[in-house]
Design goal:
Length: about 325
């Protein structure tokens, strides 16, 4: 009888140990995903692909180094997006697309999943790194979203770097707007940037930055700075950053919808992301797009309905990847 009891006690202890080990295995200490826009792959040569991958990996390294050394997900997503804003390949900061008047108007947002604080700016023409000003809106004002001249005046007052609008231009973006004006096809994939991360304290954060849609009307604001549409983070569920046809992302409240499907319907991250992209966005037509997301356990999802999405990811448990095509 005694032997039986001891044996069953030992078995119980071993099996509870196993459960703990299994939980540990799926609970990532940190995880990160990055996107650099989604769209058509028509103009993607092997050479271009290599250059995009190189910069996505460089951005990823900034984020992984920070998370591995215990930095917050909020600082990591911001630093990654700053790198991508400074890289002329992407449609954010330097390299942003032009609107139909030939002017750059930039949008950006950042969100802290630990307290649901968020900061965003929209339609700015002269702030070198919009994501840094979005962070300042979150940290140093009572507001969530500042626009246009008001946002620029705020950035200046906080010592942010102000540039001429022409700073954002590249030869490719000028050619792109000229061909749109001649009613030709938009030759390039878009290139909005975003980053989502889980840090070792279990905090989630999301950041997104963009020049918007090439050839847009002046004054048009996309999904990126609309919290819940293109950017969202909540420690109870997930951090999401989107890229795509912003009007659809706003109308479908894409990032929040993924979070809500997880919170209220109990869907797993991948199920929720696929439900929103393939069953809600797909039927609406438009030019589509995708999302990157990391949930509170460190699971990563990168779902898109376009031919390509520039993306990269890494997890504390090892493994990282970079991809562009399906
Ligand atoms: N979502 C962005 C916007 O509509 C564009 C993009 O992601 O390509 O402003």
């Amino acid at each position: 009888m005694k032997v039986k009891l001891i044996t069953s006690l030992i078995l119980t202890m071993i099996s509870s140990q196993l459960v703990i080990c299994q939980e540990k295995r799926v609970q990532e200490k940190w995880a990160i995903a990055i996107h650099g826009g989604a769209g058509s792959s028509a103009s993607l040569t092997d050479e271009k692909k290599k250059v995009y991958e190189k910069h996505l990996l460089a951005a990823l390294k900034i984020g992984t180094d920070m998370l591995a050394s215990g930095e917050s997900s909020l600082n990591a997503v911001q630093a990654v997006v700053v790198y991508l804003e400074d890289c002329p390949l992407f449609n954010a900061g330097k390299g942003a697309v032009l609107n139909i008047e030939g002017i750059h108007e930039l949008d950006a947002a950042i969100m802290d999943g630990s307290n649901l604080k968020a900061g965003a700016i929209a339609g700015v023409r002269d702030i070198k790194n919009p994501i840094k000003t979005a962070r300042l809106v979150m940290d140093s004002t009572q507001h969530v979203l500042l626009i246009g001249e008001g946002a620029s005046a705020f950035a200046k007052s906080m010592g942010e770097e102000i540039v001429e609008n022409s700073y954002f231009s590249t030869k490719e973006r000028v050619e792109q707007i000229n061909s749109i004006k001649k009613q030709k096809e938009n030759p390039d994939p878009r290139g909005t940037v975003g980053c989502v991360a889980l840090d070792s304290k279990g905090n989630l954060a999301a950041a997104t930055s963009t020049g918007g849609m090439s050839g847009k009307k002046w004054g048009r604001v996309g999904d990126v700075p609309i919290i819940g549409a293109g950017t969202y983070a909540n420690n109870n569920t997930v951090a999401v950053s989107g890229t795509g046809h912003g009007e659809l992302w706003i109308r479908r409240v894409v990032a929040y919808d993924i979070s809500a499907l997880m919170e209220y319907k109990g869907l797993l991250l991948e199920q929720a992301a696929r439900e929103v992209i393939f069953n809600k966005i797909d039927p609406m037509g438009g030019s589509g797009g995708g999302i990157i997301a990391v949930d509170k356990s460190g699971n990563i999802s990168m779902v898109f309905n376009t031919q390509m999405m520039n993306r990269a990811w890494a997890k504390a448990s090892g493994g990282y990847g970079v991809g562009i095509l399906k």
